[in-house]
User: What shape does this take?
Amino acid sequence: MVPLFLHPGRLTREWIEGRRASHVPPLRLFLFFSILFFLVIQLQSSTSDLLLSEGEGAQAEPGTQVQGDTNLEMYLPGFWPFTKLREALDKQEARLKRLTEKEQEYLLARRALELAPLGLFLLLPLLALFLKLWWMRTGSWYLDHLVMLMHDFAFLCALFVALLLLPLPSWANVLAGVGGPFFYFHRAMRVTYQRGFWRTLGGTLVGSVVTLIACMIVALVLIPYGLLTF
Assistant: This one.
């Protein structure tokens, strides 16, 4: 825990150099903190109140049900297989319209929380591909980049857990939530790849943009999947 939180990149560097026996495996570390993060989200967020309330407020009184007005509007080309996808979405939309607004919130919030961990896992290979291209001449393997991301994401999950649990003012949450990951990732890459400040800063800045794009790609995959499978 000490090198993970206080010495960014050291765990990854030692893993690359073969000193692995005395450390927790990267995947196990990542899984522990990601599970902890999503557990805290479910306990702290307002949507989790819907999930944990055992249906309180989600069921309408007999004879007073009011249909929700959710529309699954999504542009799709008019040829197969998109026609099949449109038919499936129409069925899901008809199913939603038979529910009350509270029931719709419960169903969609539950599906979002179920798919959030999958989205985090899908980000790993996409961001590792960017690191492989950016640090192509360092001699690092694709697995090395995955390991660094697992360590960095473990720290990120731990940081957000702390921000969720600590009674900090909103400005402190924003500063720590944005600045903390940026400076941590920058330092972790300098230690891991052992390159100069400006080259690493460029990787951090470009990596931030790539992360946003990767999040959009994952969302474009998971949102239709979530709507089709709730």
Observations:
- The radius of gyration is 21 Å.
- Residues 122 and 218 are 7 Å apart (CA to CA).
- The chain has nine helices and no strands.
- Residues 101-134 form the longest helix (34 residues).
